[in-house]
Amino acid sequence: MTKLLRQLIFTIFLAIITSSAMASGNCASVANDLRAMQRANQNISSSLIGNHESFATILEGYSDTLSTSASLGRPVTKEAVLNMNEGARAFRVRGQNAMKLNFKLNQASDQVIAKAIECLKLRK
Fold first, then answer.
1. What is the pLDDT of residue 23?
2. Phi (first) and psi of residue 77, to 5 degrees
3. How many angstroms separate the CA atoms of 105 and 100, rounded?
4. 54-90 burial: b if 16+ Cβ within 10 Å, else e
5. Residue 108, Cβ neighbours under 10 Å: how many?
6. The whole model's pTM is what?
């Protein structure tokens, strides 16, 4: 996940938390919080789609390398194997980062949901 995306999501979380703290009891802010959550979710989804595309492109590159080596009757080079392992590690790190961001988004979502429940109770 890119640094820019992480900063954007952090900003959205900060806005959610700040508006929740400043506007406790202000039901109008719930809609803004929900919109911020929706934007964060869209950004995470876009990033995941991009990760899948990157992974597919890398696999195609590895497939080409293996096909070329096989057609020439050569073993796969050590460099190609190292590149494959580096690619795997990079995608694992991306996955771990995505899980952390997803956890943070879920926490922020729980806060907004709790706030929405309080607003609904106050309206009864």
1. 47
2. -70, 155
3. 9
4. eeeebeeebeebeeeeeeeeeeeeeebeeebeebeee
5. 22
6. 0.59
